[in-house]
UniProtKB/TrEMBL annotation:
Bilayer-spanning residue ranges: 30-53, 73-91, 112-136
Protein name (database record): Succinate dehydrogenase
Taxonomy of the source species: Bacteria, Bacillati, Actinomycetota, Actinomycetes, Micrococcales
Species assigned in the record: Arthrobacter crusticola
Example GO molecular function: metal ion binding
Keyword Glycoprotein applies: no
Alphabetized InterPro entries for the sequence: SQR/QFR_C/D, SuccDH_FuR_B_TM-su
């Protein structure tokens, strides 16, 4: 009995639309693919540290309130940590959704509109999140009245 041979899937002629030239070797898609892998690893570490400090260390879930966040964000280390976490998570998620849109949106106009909405939402969320992290004031003065809580320094 003769054993049938199967040609390698890449041995056939490649369509010119898919041929890679010397100038396309360092293209955007390769960078996006690499970013997804690296940011995924960094995000896993950052998320577990975030969950550990917020939920496991100390009093657990019962400690998480406005005062807990105010105390955390009083330190520039935690501000930068949460900022990097926000930016990485948003860019990682945006890149993943961009890939899904490219894979499943059939019309170029649909793909353009979906990615436009995605990029707009990403920019708005990153800007608002960054603004909140760096302008957060746990001891506000409203209408000339200082709303002093136990964690605010007295003036």
């Amino acid at each position: 009995m003769a054993v049938p041979t199967v040609e390698s899937p890449r041995s056939g002629r490649v369509s010119p639309a898919y041929s890679r030239t010397r100038s396309s070797r360092g293209n955007f898609e390769m960078g996006a693919w690499l970013f997804m892998r690296l940011s995924g690893v960094v995000l896993v570490v950052m998320i577990f540290v975030h969950l550990w400090t917020s939920l496991v260390a100390g009093d657990g879930i019962s400690q998480v309130d406005f005062g807990f966040v105010a105390g955390k964000w009083a330190s520039p280390v935690w501000q930068v940590w949460d900022l990097v976490l926000l930016w990485l998570a948003m860019l990682h998620g945006t890149n993943g959704v961009r890939t899904i849109i490219n894979d499943y949106a059939e019309k170029n106009s649909t793909r353009m509109w979906l990615k436009g909405v995605l990029y707009t939402a990403t920019v708005v969320i990153i800007l608002l999140g960054t603004l909140v992290i760096f302008t957060f004031d746990p001891c506000p003065v409203i209408d000339g009245v200082a709303h002093v809580a136990s964690y605010c320094p007295t003036a």
